[in-house]
């Protein structure tokens, strides 16, 4: 496995994004590493797709993956790793039939570039995908040993699921996406709970505040059981997520 890390200034939408290139042809990976590193990305290239299955992919921002590879083709690789990654995945392939494109998208690919491709086209697609991810915000947030998966709607601590209810998760997600900002109970209610049909909580300020406190208390209890306590009570104000 080869990797290259380029220095240089980056655009606001890239902030030193990490790209994984997977292709069994070293000439292709060398070409892509040179082009993308020149653009300022941190690039890792893998020529044996089986290595990717064993890799820690948490910090990867985008994957460029060939389809026709020995041992483990691109479609099989995507199937094996898609639940572990939420970054954009772009397939590179010599296949030209529509069925292959449909299969790629059905497996969760974000884009599909046919070989031979122009470097300018590929650079533009990479830039666009990373820019879209930046505007949406990262679907994975990490706070020390705590990981919040905004796509799977789960919080894990050292790999252990906190098993939050949907209401508990929504409140935690609101706070975690804006660490350090204090939210009043009614703000949390309106942002996370007001739309749900909860017979235990009426739309009065006192009942809404009580419901928020109960959900937060339960969430904090579950997180403390896993060894973390990221939610702070700001007296006379509300609650915040400690950065």
TrEMBL record:
UniProt keyword annotation of Phosphoprotein present: yes
Top-level lineage group: Bacteria
Annotated keywords: DNA-binding, Phosphoprotein
InterPro entries in alphabetical order: CheY-like_superfamily, OmpR/PhoB-type_DNA-bd, Sig_transdc_resp-reg_receiver, WalR-like, WH-like_DNA-bd_sf
GO molecular function, one term: transcription cis-regulatory region binding
A biological-process GO annotation: regulation of DNA-templated transcription
Domain OmpR/PhoB-type: 138-243
Location of the DNA-binding region in this protein: 138-243
One cellular component term from this protein's GO annotations in UniProt: cytosol
Keyword Membrane: no
Name of a matching Pfam family: Response_reg
Residues bearing the modification 4-aspartylphosphate: 66
Protein name per Swiss-Prot or TrEMBL: Response regulator transcription factor
Organism the protein comes from: Bifidobacterium apousia
Lineage: Bacteria, Bacillati, Actinomycetota, Actinomycetes, Bifidobacteriales
